[in-house]
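A favour, since you know our structure tokens better than I do. Would you make up a two-line entry for one protein for me to read? Write everything out right here, beneath this request.
=====
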Amino acid sequence: MSSADTPASRPLTQWTQSAIAGWDRFWFTPAAPHTLSLIRILAGGMLLYTHLVWALDLMNFLGPNAWITADVSRELHSDSYAWSYLWYVESPAVIWTLHVLALAVFALFTAGCATRITSVLAFLITVSYSHRLIGAQSGLDQVNAMRAMYLMIGASGAAYSVDSWLAKRHNHWLLPKEQPAVSTNLAIRLIQLHMCVIYLFGGIGKLRGDMWWDGSALWYSAANLEYQSLNITWLGRSPILVATLSHVTMFWETFYCATIWPRWTRPITLALAFAVHGGIALSLGMITFGLMMIFGNLAFVSPEFTRRMVSRITRQAQTVLRSLPSSTSAKLPRPANADHGRHVNLKSASHTDGTGTVVCQSLYKPSCFTISNVFMTFAWYAHLKELNTKPWHCRRHCVGAWPYLNTSSKFQPIASAAQHSNWDNSRFYKR
């Protein structure tokens, strides 16, 4: 018997094998693409927005006489491996052309069009702008670059994208299929770990400050007029509340990397993340940064939950759209008690509401039924055009009293006259 098979070494061997198997499961288990694709839409939209903002004063940021010129920017990065194609461009026309192309790439990436190509281009463009605009960037730009890098690694266009729509009709290597993939799980895990690192160092930095220990940090943030976008200084009326919120924030951020993994503490940790970053976005004026951090926390949401929520929201949106008033070109609904079986003589196509009031009367008496159909079609179209100029409450009433031309080319009343006894129909049909 070898020394590796001795009873004393078996627990260690089993533990090593279990650790290796767990490592493989963590990184290389295929994952569904729904969560990563949702992050692509949200982060891609933020990339498009943040780079669109540069266009408001593009030449002062990237032009030949910019506040920080290309030579100065390149010199500031001389001791690093940074690179930017914007260092080698000085012509305003070329800069504007490259900027418009960059915005087009971000738009295509957000829509999920050719994501295997646009994701790589989006990452290179984001990093190039970050390196060129040194001195004008913030934490948002760093988070944007991080998110773009991991979205480039995974199959972020496998769901909720133009690629997924095309993949159902064509089989091509550029079109990722909506199925579990190892690269998707790898990208999600990298985002998760990076979020843990960000929060860990942020928490350690807070632990070094006295204001977080004495509970006054939140008050100084709320009272800082430089960042204040929503007045929450009313919190100062309750020092205990301010201290509690400060300590909870410090504890949450420091131990985020530990509490986010267990299933029973993950919902609480994510709820606090939404509350903290939502508060930063609303009250401290950092809406874009707060939203990007919330988007990063979505990496801890399971793909199945994301798929169910997106499907539910889609169904609700479709229900709302169907409940809106239909356009005049759409087929108008018939009342439930419409008399569709009784044909009306064209030469006496009139009916009353039982009191002698004429609800609808045909003013045309053609000798040919085909000519009648054509005339009625134009009359129906003219009536719709008139309805389009009336208030909705008028349209809702007068539609029911107008004859409907069905597919069998028979002239039929759309509703019984008894329903419309309280109408003043003369106002609806005056020309």
In short: Residues 139 and 322 are 42 Å apart (CA to CA). The chain has 19 helices and four strands.
